[in-house]
Amino acid sequence: MPMSKPGYVLLAFVASCLLSSTALSQTVGLGTPIEQTQLQNFDLIAGPDGEGLPDGSGTALQGKLVFESRCQACHGANGEGTGSSTILVGGNMQTEASPLKTVGSFWPHATTLFDYIRRAMPANAPKSLSNTEVYQVVAYVLYLNGIINQYAVLNKDSLLTIQMPNKDGFLDRSHIQ
Amino acid sequence: MTKSTEWQRVAGNGLLSRRHLLGLGLSSASVLASSAVLGADGKALFEIPGWSRQAGPGPSGYGQRSVHTAFMQRDAGAPDPLYPGGGASRSPLQHLQGTITPNSLHFERHHAGIPAIDPAGHQLVINGLVKQALAFSYESLLSYPMVSRFYFLECSGNSRSLYGARPGNGTAQTIHGLLSGAEWTGIPLSTLLDEAGILGSAQWVSAVGADAASMGRSVPLNKALDDVLVALYQNGEPLRPEQGYPMRLFVPGWEGNISVKWLTQLKLTQEPSQFRDETSKYTDTMADKTSLQFTFPMGCKSVITSPSGQMQLRRHGLYQITGVAWSGNGTITRVEVSADGGQTWAEAMLDSAQHAKALTRFRIPWSWDGATAQLMSRATDSTGAVQPTRTALLAERGENSFYHCNAIQCWGVSAAGDVNNAYV
User: Fold this and answer.
1) Which parts of chain A have pLDDT scores under 50?
2) Residue B4 to residue B225: CA distance in whole angstroms
3) Confidence (pTM)
4) Residue B294 and residue A85: Cβ atoms within 8 Å?
5) Tell me: the pLDDT tens digits for A29-81?
């Protein structure tokens, strides 16, 4: 079948690309360069090394007020929960045969509490808490679990010093694939 | 049907050689409806049906299934007021054939409902340990080279009721329906990461979705550069909203939760981000109370989809036992079937091509004479892994297991033909 004129043009284009392939970009290159400062409201990841934790601070005493107005309806006044999925306190990985898994008994990193509350809570209005309110609520949940006292000030530095009871209870299996 | 007695029996309780599959003629209970008019000789007359006497509707812009198959539904369960938009729906495996799940029946698992995303307002950001942080629009991603691959997707918590002390009255759908198969089309993640430029210190990629939970998971960089896709199409059409429209991460062979839907951020980090859904959830607590973390691949597994739970066998004679097998670590190389609770096994035929980390359909003929039977299937994959018995899995995992159940399933068949979930 005779090749159409556009076909010849395409062939010539492909040939020229092959001849000058070393000069071609290796990517399509349609990503727009951005700066990390543009992501301050967008990147919500708060890692276990403190990377991504924002400014702000709070105590459990302050957090109690936020908790009562924003969290208590689902999690109960003292974190006892209103259903099996909303229990925040109790459980013991060492002594219970089938342990209740909560922030206090199971969660290995305090930063996860900040990360999760900031991105996903409260479930009826996620991301509606300020960073300060998140620090306050994190402090209150840790206080309810007996991990800190009600006056302890949580911020991006002190949060990293929190020792979660089950911090040594996990084995990283990511190398087995 | 009496002919089946001449066929080669290959295992106990009626299993026949898979070589007979192609000539298999199953009897049908009745060819004609009971209202058929009888001819002079007393035999039913075949008539031209009404739908052959009148033109039907013409072509349409978007196809619909027959009203007679509309009963095939995902099983979504009741909504939980404590968990707005959360929950799962299960694929009706017992009604489906082949290895591709229709998009409308693909299982769902949401952590805060399905976001109503306008692709024009959606961004995919790559940041963290890269030479240049980048943002991609949906439209720009459509210009990138893509690949299409067949893969299964299975929720980590699929089949977990089999960890329970007593067998529930489940169906293939309610027990195993957090499993589906599709052809996924997307951009190799490595293409986009290379454009941003991966710094030498990066070891993990944290993926975050644009749902109300902003659900996140950490993916090891070596997997991200191996076969992970930014998927844009499922079975040829753009992703459906409940599957992550306009884009999702697709991590072949690994627990479904890590294939983050509504993908909006990929952050390269040195350590995993320790998200809630890789610490509090999706970890495996062993008998000694330590919990295994990042247990990603879904194990070698199979399930018989027909006959299966809550079906009734209404006649004696020839049946085709069929089901699906899959492994997150490779290709299915063998599926064996037992009709006598695992005392004897016969090799099933693997239907169609086998793809790594995809569903494989298996079939074997079975002659049921009305005796009680216990139907089981056992898969083997290309790494040599063999699907474990439930007893062996419980012995390995202990009593606190929740995820990654790949135990052999047993469907008990009573003398009356009732099929029920059973433990052996």
Assistant:
1) 1-5, 7, 9, 15-17, 20-21
2) 52
3) 0.92
4) no
5) 999 999 999 999 999 999 999 999 999 999 999 999 999 999 999 999 999 99
C-alpha–C-alpha distance, residues B74 and B323, integer Å = 18
Whether residue A109 and residue B274 make contact (CB cut-off 8 A), yes or no, is yes
State whether residue B79 is helix, strand or coil: coil
Contacts with B, A 128-167, CB within 8 Å: none
Chain B interface mutation, best of A51, A170, A175, A176, highest count of B Cβ atoms under 10 Å: A170
What six digits make up the tokens of B248? 């999702």
> Quick one: A60-161 is in which CATH superfamily?
Cytochrome c-like domain (1.10.760.10)
User: How many CB atoms are located within 10 Å of the residue B409 CB?
Assistant: 29
The C-alpha atoms of residue B326 and residue A17 are separated, in whole angstroms, by 42
Domain chopping of chain A, boundaries:
60-161
Q: Which of B118, B230, B252, B184 is nearest to A31 (CA)?
A: B230
Rounded to an integer, what distance in angstroms lies between the CA atom of residue B178 and that of residue B153?
8
Q: Which residue of A has its CA nearest to B207?
A: A45
pLDDT digits (tens, 9 = 90+) for B351-382: 978 999 999 999 999 999 999 999 999 999 99
Give residues 72 to 91 of A whose Cβ lies within 8 Å of B: 74, 82-83, 85-86
Q: Tokens representing B347?
A: 């090799």
Q: What is the DSSP letter of B345?
A: -
Domain B110-156+179-292 sits in CATH at 3.90.420.10
Q: Where are the domains positioned within chain B? A: 110-156+179-292
Contact B19, B9 (CB under 8 A): no
The answer, for A120 touching chain B at a CB cutoff of 8 Å, is yes
A-B interface: how many C-beta pairs under 8 angstroms?
A: 164
Which is higher by pLDDT, B389 or B3? B389
Q: Which of A177, A33, A127 is nearest to B329 (CA)?
A: A177
